[in-house]
Design brief:
Layout: E1 2-11, H1 15-26, E2 31-35, H2 58-71, E3 75-78, E4 81-87, E5 90-95, E6 100-108, E7 112-115, H3 122-125, E8 130-131, H4 134-137, E9 146-149, H5 154-162, E10 169-172, H6 181-189, E11 193-195, E12 199-205, E13 208-214, E14 219-221, E15 224-226, E16 230-233, H7 236-239, E17 246-250, E18 253-258, E19 272-274, H8 285-324
Parallel strand pairs: 1-2, 1-6, 2-3, 6-19, 8-15, 9-10, 9-15, 10-11
Antiparallel strand pairs: 4-5, 5-6, 7-16, 12-13, 13-14, 17-18
Helix pairs in contact: 1-2, 1-8
């Protein structure tokens, strides 16, 4: 059964979804946020570079956002959206368990999944001392021993980037080729050591990373390991609408997948917007929140245009009816 109808259903309750929902609720739109409760940044202790909320725990930021949305009349429910289909002039959204809701417009902010390297210990330490983004965690490991685990050609770029935060950076070549002559020169000039050979596992003592163990059994002492996960858009609900992810490219290399959209977040399916990491795998939390706000403004404008067209049609009908009256 279709239980309720809303102006906008927001799929995903992270920074992008809540920011969009807040703007729409303040625009006096009926809004429902459906959140599966699987935030990408759950393993992280804090959110960084979020102006005026620097260092806030992710769960605390989300709780504050939910409170603000509901304060303006928005509704938030826990649930997993299985699919969405065109329904009249809008959409029908089906949740796991059978519940269905209708929406005039959709804002999908389901984020992405980090596909981590298959090295024992990496998944368990992810977001703690196994890191990816220096702007998220560089300050916290400044001056420490940092090993960049190369899983592709971007490993060299990552090593050079993390050198900004520490003079003790090592490039772990893992299964990638040794740096060429020019690359080796640049690494040497910056004091970045190259450690050859596959990494067999992370070394941990007293719940603290102490280094990595190579396939040769040699142990390299480290305080943090940097990885470059493949960034895969959570796009199931969008694919049910016919939207397919495309390659996300950085410096000429594919780093993951995302849903294509215009600068407002509008997709190729009329009435469907995306925001946050599902549309931009490189977006930080504050950028995702901004994208949600941007999409919300575009959605509200689109709804106003539709309502104006309907009002004009109704007005013309009234005028025509009055002119035909005896």
């Amino acid at each position: 059964m279709v239980d309720e109808a809303y102006d906008v259903v927001v799929v995903g309750g992270g920074a992008a979804g809540l920011s969009g929902a807040l703007a729409l609720a303040r625009a006096r739109r009926s809004v429902l946020v459906i959140d599966a409760g699987e935030p990408r940044n759950a393993p992280a202790g804090h959110v960084h570079n979020y102006l005026a909320r620097e260092g806030v725990p992710p769960a605390e930021l989300a709780a504050a956002g939910r409170a603000e949305v509901t304060c303006y009349g928005g509704q938030i429910v826990a649930g997993l959206v299985e699919a969405a289909v065109r329904h009249g002039d809008g959409f029908q959204v089906r949740l796991h368990g059978g519940r269905r809701v209708r929406a005039r417009r959709l804002l999908v902010t389901t984020g992405l999944v980090d596909d981590l390297p298959d090295v024992p210990g990496v998944a368990e330490r992810w977001g703690r001392d196994v890191l990816a983004c220096p702007y998220c965690h560089g300050w916290e490991v400044r001056g420490l021993r940092i090993g960049v685990l190369a899983t592709g050609p971007l490993g060299l770029d990552q090593a050079g980037l993390w050198r900004q935060w520490s003079t003790q950076v090592m490039l772990l070549t893992h299964h990638t080729p040794a740096p060429g002559a020019d690359e080796a020169e640049r690494l040497a000039a910056r004091g970045i050591a190259v450690v050859a050979g596959p990494v067999a596992a992370l070394e941990v003592a007293d719940d603290t990373l102490t280094g990595v163990r190579l396939a040769s059994a040699e142990v390299v002492a480290l305080d943090a390991v940097v990885v470059s996960p493949r960034l895969a858009a959570r796009a199931d609900v969008l694919q049910s609408l016919g939207l397919k992810p495309v390659d996300a490219v950085l410096n000429g290399h594919v780093i993951g997948s995302q849903i294509p959209a215009d600068p407002t977040g509008a997709t190729a399916v009329p009435g469907v917007w995306v925001a946050g990491n599902v549309a931009d795998v490189r977006a930080h939390v504050i950028a995702a929140a901004a994208a949600g706000m941007n999409a919300a403004a575009a959605i509200n404008t689109d709804l106003i245009a539709e309502e104006t067209r309907d009002a004009v049609d109704a007005y013309r009908h009234r005028v025509h009816t009055m002119s035909e009256a005896p």
